[in-house]
Amino acid sequence: MDSHEQAPLGIRLLGGFAVRVDGRPVAEEAWRLRRAKSLIKLLALAPERRVHREQAAELLWPGHAPSGNGLHQVLYTARRAVAADGRAGDRLVLRDDVVALVGDGIWVDVDAFERAAAAARERRSVAAFREALALYAGELLPEDRYEEWTATRRESLRETRLALLVELAQAHADAADTAAAIEALQRAVVDDPLHEAAHRGLMRLFADGGRRQQALAQYQQLRDALRRTLAADPDPETRRLYREILASQHAEPAEPPPAAVPPPAAAAAPPSAAAPLPPAAAVAPPPAAAATPPATAPPPARPLRPDLPHQLTSFVGRERELTELEGLLRHTRLLTLTGPGGCGKTRLASALATRRSRDFPDGAFIVELAPIADAALVVEETAAALGVKPRSERDPIDVLGDQIGDAGILLVLDNCEHLIDACATLADRLLRACPNLRVLTTSREQLRVPGEVAWRVPPLSLPEPAEPDLDRLERSEAIRLFCQRAADAAPGFALTPANAGAVAEICRRLDGMPLALELAAARIAVLSPAQVAERLGDALALLRGGSRAGLTRQQTLRATLAWSYQLLTDPERVLYRRLGVFAGSFGVEAIDGVCADDDGSCAGGVPLDLLAQLAGKSLVQVEPAAGRYRYRLLETVRQHAREQLAEAGERGALEAAHRAWYLALAEAADRDRAPEVAAAWPAKRLDAEHDDLRAALASAIRDEPPAALRLAGALWWYWMARAHFVEGSRWLDDALAAAPTPTPERARALWALGGLDVRRRGTIRTVRLGADALEIARRSGDPHAEARALERRGAFAMGGFDWPVADTAFAEGLALADTLGDATVTVAITQAQGALAGCRGETERSRALLERSLTLLDEIPEAPEPLFWALHISPIGLPAGPGGAPRFFFEDTFCLFRAVRSRAGAGYVLVNVGETWRADAEYGRAHDAFERALERFRELRDDEGAGVALNALGNLARSTGDADAGRRRFEQALALRRAARDTREIATTTVGMGMLALYTGEEERGRARLREAEAIFERTEDGPGLQAIPLDLGAFELDRGDPRRACALLERCAELSRERRIVPNLSWALTELAEAAMAIGEPDRARRALAEALPLLERSGDVRGSRYARSLNTRLSDA
């Protein structure tokens, strides 16, 4: 046995953490706390195995102090793990604020390796070097690659091993064993392709053995790796050796060295200087099963699906690069493609992701960051690409990491350079949190994250100088790309002996840069290759001040762009630079609205004609989209266009025009002001404009704050529909801070911010925001505006679950509306009071108010302005328990924030009438009301309203026990909600389907549906939704299943409800908890629950809930 197995306490850190106590391995389950293992690791690496407690706390809890007795808990767990024969306290002690591993017989492999290395260097024997190297079982603590306290020591040990390999090779060479020496050095090169000493050793051995071509190839391999990774050349000593070997080839023909002899298999992956990232599932990407949680785990965060864009043009060449990158992607978790703009990073990353997407069971996704200027939006864009919504008061990266979880995905972050810090932070933290995630980035510079492998994208392969053979010329990737794109621009173009020289010159002059080649090829429609080559030379000379020496790739790209710009006509130049104002893709209408002069022309030209000319010259990209074309500038082209815009002195004017256009677009699509525009402006239509809406908001906040308020107010419905709650709130907060003057626009922005706040997790500001907006209305002196503000103040108080405030606001608003004779405010408040009464269990009063609302609505024509925001009685109390005992269910969204006019408003009122009948067990009347509502919505072609009515009919079927009808209605509702991409409503319908299955005897299916819904709520950080699952399931378990399990579920609901003070859910969960506690013989627990619930129910005026809670109190007193 080795010393590790013989020692009383043996600790292995190299190749992975393992501990033996008296020869027996410590089982994984003995380490109940991860930090307990980390503490042993820290001590094993520390000098004298001692660490001050403050240092230990800082390393184990980076960024914050441990809570309570956290360190003592870690110490206790670690002591138990390393205990032997009851001597735990003897080995791990805390004395005088110092934590230490003490005692004899402690063996650590790192210490053993370093001692053996020192001995080998002293003895200089092959056996000694091999003995030392045998102790290096792998890198230090590979599972802790991201821990800063391991990085320095890991690199030091790695360097020691590499140095030992070089010294072992020398020992072999001294013993005349050349083959063994070469093998040792190749092992070093495999581990570090940039290790120059190892490369030099191989060069000498190959040259001394008469294998000079192989020696020169070894130098070529090193040079390529250095240039690709560090953009550097070998050091002077290595270059000198190369010249010496080259000079010794007197009898050999001068020809390029052949490819280097491939080292062992692992050499395919050149690493960066940083420590490598931990592999996901060893070498290969994780199998699909890796993302499947155990039966007791929560459901997976989301079903991820591939989302790679289809390319419209062919991908030319890059086979060697793709093969190499595929190998790298198998061996590293963070791969960055670096290089200047236009070198093909994005296209190469897309091709690589497409090739390897099958290796990632949960998909490959590309996040296009080029249109984003705000670092705060990096996480939002990433979440959008993955199809998740990080709405939370928590750190959004933590939320996104939780949502990705164990999913096996490839995430491509494209164009990171202008957001480098945000991208580095995102990649670093997601890789720490998500074990099966791999990240591929493109950037003009490295992210500089530990473990990153940076791979510089080379230019396309170039033809040899003065190469006359057409077949050999066409082997050049640059030639092939130029010819393919030239043929696109000028059908019939082909490489011929007559133009081959000029084409080769163009490719060499442009350094094989794909973007530059494509721009040059576009000119073949009007210029010959010889003319292109001639003009290209003049442009490059101009930008370099006449010097044709030392051209860099970036300067070449800029020269190409400047040359393309100079070749444009004056009207083309004007449109080109004005297009630089757009942040994302744009349509023809936007060009006319933003870039045209007052007379509709652009510097005298027709904008559409100029656009076609720019597209034909590859300066504008054409993107098919939903039956019409949209246009986009490549990022490097856009930056150049913006530079020209600034130089022309037009930037301020164009940004103002851009703001005005997108403000008008947002207001035209504002369904909160005009519900009828929803058909013409679905949310997906604004998706395409989102980048430019953001840019317009940013410039408005900076230069025109009142316009920012208008724009944000017009967009809040879109943020609500797309669940951009966090982003929308941030824009509104910024706009409100920039424009503090109390105006109607500010009041509307406050209403919008309050509406978004209802959906977010965390403290609800809705009631306070409503008060601020009401104060602005009162200051305006407009009594109609004040009456409307009181109605909205009441609705906000309902959404904020402060129902007494809602009562007061509604009473004041109704009195003022009656005085003014404002029927629109009267009906809005009356229907809201009816919904609130229904939530309180006052079903007769609720129906009376709702029926009065219907009468009033019949008397109000379809006015231009919407009447109110739709409300829905939910959660709802139903007589679902034994003997008609009330149970509380969350079945659909309470505050819908959908602006409606009289006819659609009547549909929502009818749904609420049906809910009151259902609460009274009058199921036939409930069915009639729901069907009338559905008929109304279908007449109006209102799919959102129809989804609400169908969902209500599905839930009604649960009450009546009609499983077939319920499934049919739910499937219809789900189809509508999926078509609208309404994530929240999809989840609520899924909850209804699950509860229907449970109550009709299909428990397995029902629980699966509830897990599916819970995963959606978890992914979207939906606070009320997360409370719905334990509330609904708790009621089922109370009556049909296990009261003890019901207690646990209802406790969970109560805990979640306390976080946001959602009083209805909290009070009802506590009341049902009391009944469940009584059922399992825990009266004290029941009394505590009722003591908290009853005051809440009474303050909120919940008649049914208060009566129910008092009856339970009576039963407890009588027991």
From TrEMBL:
SUPFAM superfamilies to which the protein is assigned, alphabetical: P-loop containing nucleoside triphosphate hydrolases, TPR-like
Biased composition (Pro residues): 254-265, 276-288
Stored InterPro entries: AAA_22, BTAD, HTH_77, P-loop_NTPase, TPR-like_helical_dom_sf, TPR_rpt, WH-like_DNA-bd_sf
Residue intervals passing through the bilayer: none
GO function term, MF aspect, one: ATP hydrolysis activity
One of the Pfam families matching this protein, by short name: HTH_77
Residue ranges occupied by any Bacterial transcriptional activator domain in the UniProt entry: 108-246
Domain of life: Bacteria
Disordered: region residues: 250-308
Segments of skewed composition (Low complexity): 266-275
PANTHER family: HTH-TYPE TRANSCRIPTIONAL REGULATOR RV0890C-RELATED, REGULATOR-RELATED
Protein name: Transcriptional activator domain protein
High-level lineage: Bacteria, Bacillati, Actinomycetota, Thermoleophilia, Solirubrobacterales
